[in-house]
Amino acid sequence: MTTRYPQAILVSCEIPWDENEELLEGCFRQEIRATLQHFNHLYIFGTAGEGYAVTLSQFQRIVRIFHEETDRDDVFPMVGVIAMSTTQIVERIGFAHELGFRAFQIALPSWGAVNDDEYLTFFKDVCGTFPDAKFIHYNLPRAKRVLLGPDYQRLVEAVPNLAGTKNCRTDINDILGIATYSPELQHFYGEHGFPHGCLFGECSLLSSFGAMFPSKTKEFFHYGVTRQWDKLFPMQAEYLQVANAFLAPARGLERIDGAYDKMIVRASGVDMPLRLLSPYEGFDLETFNACVRAVRERYPDWLG
Description:
- The chain is α/β, with parallel strands linked by helices and 304 residues long.
- It has a domain at 9-214: Aldolase class I (TIM Barrel, Alpha-Beta Barrel).
- The chain contains eleven helices and eight strands.
- The chain has helices at residues 25-36, 56-70, 86-99, 116-129, 149-158, 172-181, 194-199, 214-225, 229-247, 257-267, 285-298; strands at 9-13, 41-44, 76-81, 103-106, 134-139, 162-167, 186-189, 204-207.
- Strands 1-2-3-4-5-6-7-8 form an eight-stranded parallel beta barrel, surrounded by four helices.
- Helix 8 (214-225) runs antiparallel to helix 9 (229-247).
- The protein is globular and about 50 Å long.
- The protein starts with 8 loop residues before the first strand and ends in a 6-residue tail after the last helix.
């Protein structure tokens, strides 16, 4: 079955802030260009990209810059939108749509958990407003309602331009159900879930570490696409060991996911500040240096 969105590696671009919480435009452009050296499916404003935190004016400025840097035929950019209501989400999508974006990543409103009728209404209202666009559902627990296989089957029938999901599910039964009930959608799994997703049909990779390990990430993805199980699962084991080595010095320090992603981008060679928007804390340089040192000492070939 042909999926509604192409199979790909999807990589996030984080937002750099100065001491006054103002955008560092030069650094942001540098990050986008560095990402495009290795990947052509990229997005802004997931949770790690602080999409939940930006004002409308910040959103508009960042989206304009992202458009300027990705407006090429061989690049497939996606804009994430996280907000508290359908109207806020439609407003932000409308701005990006007018600039020319046609791929969007959306999360359910999180003020209260939506029921079965409400999530269907949400997708119909948002996706139906932009019938020429494609939408990826960011299925995260912070939205208070996680969708599974039967939910997606229902959405596939009702929302023709829902094209995929971003699912960091790790339970193999969840992955099986999502694949079985909605094979029309392109499901993006993280490094933990991607190999298992490949067992049940076409799926894609949401790469947390793509910026830091671009060559290894593309190799990992290739083994999944070509169903080379004898190489895919051993490489997953090594991939997770390397990731754990990188994260080990930060264990015990309570941080949100954006703090980790900014360390990953900085480790790739981009001069990404580690700070997050108020009130959240990023990691300090000492912790960051310890994380990079752990990988350099134990897995030097991964940083090549």
